[in-house]
Design brief:
The chain is α/β, with parallel strands linked by helices and 286 residues long. It contains ten helices and ten strands. It has a single domain, classed as TIM Barrel (Alpha-Beta Barrel). Pfam families: Polysacc_deac_1.
Length: 286
């Protein structure tokens, strides 16, 4: 039976709160940046995932020049627990484990002494981003490449088994995407993941509870902030100018993003209604 915002028996017996990490994060908590692929895209980039090297360097230069302090995952977790942290501080995260991370991003970050967290799908190491047609030929880093990244200051986390949307999953599926994925990553790389990132940024009570019960220290979403086990992140896109990047670092942008994230049910409802009334054969917007 699918989990639909009900608390599992394990949550009741393990002492996990009915909704783990439910208390929202304050607006002044450290920003979390979310990247995906790096370099020039080999073809169309409809989801705006590729950040080219000049822009990535310009963004890092801006952060350094304006006094933003990069945090390690240890420092970020301490901030969640109440440790004093500069207002201008950030955690840099990367999703999917594209091969360009080891080739381009990790060396650049290491040169600048910027720690980061890379979220990978243990069921697809060395494979391709097969979950989305426009990127199905994009190669993902194999285990051998991932093993070298912690030495460059890049910690490894879990991004589900194979980039499955973490909503309405039954207990068996949650076990695969949360616990077994963590075990597989440790077997392949020797790293015990401490952080989880929800594919597509979507989550529900079942997935948040499963992540908390598995012993992860934190989990990351996108705009749908829900406390420690669904931290909101800033999606850095290929179309962002440096001005847009600066705007995304502001408290105002964070507030608007969170409000938009909480309205996801309304947005989905509107899309469903439009789909029902759209004439047969009408074209869809990309």
């Amino acid at each position: 039976m699918p989990v639909r915002d009900t608390v599992s028996q394990g949550a009741l017996t393990s002492g996990v709160a009915h909704d783990p990490g439910r208390r929202g994060l304050p607006r002044w908590s450290p920003r979390v940046l979310m990247y995906h692929y790096f370099g020039a895209p080999p073809g169309p980039d409809p989801e705006k995932l590729f950040i080219d090297r000049p822009m990535f360097e310009a963004q890092l230069d801006h952060l350094d020049r304006t006094g933003w302090r990069a945090l390690s995952l240890d420092e970020y977790l301490a901030a969640l627990d109440g440790a004093p942290t500069p207002r201008r501080s950030f955690l840099l995260t990367i999703d999917d484990g594209h091969e360009s991370v080891g080739r381009l991003a990790a060396p650049l970050l290491a040169e600048r002494g910027i720690p980061s967290v890379l979220f990978v799908c243990p069921g697809l190491l060395g494979d391709h981003a097969r979950w989305t047609p426009p990127y199905r030929e994009e190669r993902l880093s194999p285990a051998d490449d991932l093993r070298a990244l912690p030495g460059l200051g890049m910690e490894l986390g879990v991004h589900s088994w194979n980039h499955t949307r973490m909503v309405d999953l039954d207990a068996s599926a949650l076990e695969q995407h949360v616990r077994r994925s963590r075990e597989a990553l440790e077997s392949a790389t020797g790293v015990t993941a401490r952080a989880f990132a929800y594919p597509y940024g979507t989550h529900d009570l079942g997935s948040r509870t499963a992540v908390a019960e598995a012993g992860y220290d934190a989990a990351f979403a996108v705009a749908r902030e829900h406390g420690r086990y669904a931290v909101d992140r800033i999606f850095v896109q290929s179309t962002d100018s440096l001005f847009a990047f600066k705007c995304k670092l502001t408290a105002g942008y964070r507030l608007v993003s969170r409000v938009g994230g909480r309205a996801w049910k309304l947005r989905h409802g509107v899309r469903s209604a439009v789909a029902r009334v759209r004439p047969a054969g009408a074209g869809r917007r990309a």
